[in-house]
Amino acid sequence: MPVSNNKLLKVINKHQDELITKICNRLQKLSLSHYEMIDFERHQEREEEFLAILIKVICEEDDLPLKKYTEDLAQKRTNEGYSLEEVQNAIRIFEEEFWNILVHYYPVSNELVELLTYCNRAFGLARDHFAKYYISKTIDMQNELNSLKERFYIYKKDRKDYSENQEYD
Amino acid sequence: MTMPVSKKLNIPATLKKRKESGYKTIDRLFVYGSLNNDYYLQLLTGVKLSSRKGLLLNHRRIQPENSFTFALAWKGYTIEGRLLYNVTPEIIKKLDEYESEGKLYKRKIAQVQVDQKIVEAYVYIGKPKSLKPYFKKGFQERDRIEEFVEKNVNRYIEQKAAFFINYDRESLPLKVTRELLSEEVHNILRQYFQDSGLPPFIIKHEIEKANIPKLKWLKSDTKALQYADNYIKLASNFMIFNQLEEKFRNDYRGEVQVSDAYYMHTISAMMALKLMVDQNNQLKSAFTQLEIDRFNPDLLYTDYAAAAILIAEELYEKQKVNEINDWVNHNRHIGMLPLGAELEFSNIGYKAINAKEGDDPVFDSFYYFYNFDLMRRGWKLGAHIDDHGFLNSPNIRTRGFLELAFGRYKLLGDISKPATEDPWILSQIIDLATRFIGIRPHSLHISIEVPPNKPFKELTNPDYILCLLLLGGDLREDENGHLKEMRIFHKEILQDDKGVNISRLNRHHKKPEDDSWTPVVEYQFPRLFYEYDYQPLIMALKGFTLELNPYPFKECINLPSPEYYKEIESMLVNWADKPTHVPEKSIDQFLCLIEKGLDKEVVVMGKEHGKYTQRILGRIEEQLKRRTKRIQKHYASLEQ
Question: What is the pTM of this model?
Answer without folding.
Answer: 0.90
